[in-house]
Amino acid sequence: MNKKLVAYFSASGGETAKKAKLLAEAAGADLYEIRPEVPYEKADLDWNDENSRVSSEHSDESKREVALVKSTPDSWEQYDTVYVGYPIWWGIAAWSVNGFVKANDFTGKTVIPFCTSVSSGMGESGKQLSAMAGNGDWKEGKRFSFSATESEISAWLS
Fold first, then answer.
1. Count of beta carbons in the 10 Å neighbourhood of residue 57
2. CA distance 18 to 158
């Protein structure tokens, strides 16, 4: 049996969370939210403000080690396929996802990244996460626009 998991980080609980929930429903997968110990507030996400949290983390890579509430989902070993979802920040996966990827052993798992973005593509984000993981069978992922529908997500799964 192929047990599936959709693990996602959504900075504001908005678009990435919506797409993750639609994907989990369409794929018959369990859902797992990657949550930072210190959640991002609206002001933290203002990338136009050089003093905001995301701007500071972007400028100083050492600040991108975001502590998570929990790094590994319960019964991690039972999953064969893992979808990893995130918003794109400056052309890469939002760094809260890094802690999840580094903390888990993807050996024997098929891993499929997906992201949300208003205008940016996936870039090299999937390849970067695969390199960070060091194991697992990472597939090419998919970028979903904010307007992506349930039928578009289902079509991608097919």
1. 21
2. 19
- Alpha helix locations (H) across the chain? 15-27, 53-59, 96-103, 125-133, 150-157
Cβ atoms of residues 91 and 123 within 8 Å: yes
Q: Would you state the structure tokens that stand for residue 81, as one six-digit string?
A: 């396929």
| The one-letter amino acid at 107 | T
Compute mean pLDDT per 10 residues along the chain, 158 residues long, and list them. 92 88 96 94 85 87 89 96 94 91 97 89 90 95 89 91
- List beta partners, residue 137: 110
Give whole-number Cα distances, 67 to 47, 63, 97, 120, in Å. Answer: 20, 10, 10, 26
